[in-house]
Design goal:
Number of strands: 4
Structural class: alpha+beta
Helix content: 40-55%
Strand content: 15-25%
Shape: globular
Radius of gyration: 13 Å
Low-confidence stretches: none
Distance between the termini: 32 Å
Strand order of the largest sheet: 1-2-4-3
Mean pLDDT: 95
Length: 97
């Protein structure tokens, strides 16, 4: 079973993911992405969906037109884990790459 990040590991993860915010109530990472239009936003969501499926770790997300809001937390662990950090890093690479 995967366990929640320790406070030190959480701080290190936050430092390594400067574009992500920590949502304390749910112990989650959040980030908003803005694109030129709906097509670009949907293409990004498709890339993230493939990454998430491969990792067997799925985001909570919301899309309106050119904006995609993502929340990552590991429900089974009750908060942030290494799986969330790894997926956030992969999402960042999909956004810039």
């Amino acid at each position: 079973m995967i366990t929640r990040l320790s406070p030190d590991a959480r701080a290190a993860a936050r430092a390594a993911l400067p574009d992500w915010q920590h949502e304390g109530e749910r112990d989650a990472l959040t980030r908003s992405f803005v694109f030129a239009d709906f097509g670009a936003a949907f293409a990004f969501m498709t890339r993230v969906a493939l990454l998430a499926e491969k990792a067997d770790h799925h985001p909570e997300w919301h899309n309106v037109y050119n904006r995609v809001d993502i929340l990552l937390t590991t429900h089974d662990a009750g908060g942030l884990t290494t799986r969330d950090v790894a997926l956030a890093q992969a999402i960042d690479a999909a956004f810039t790459g």
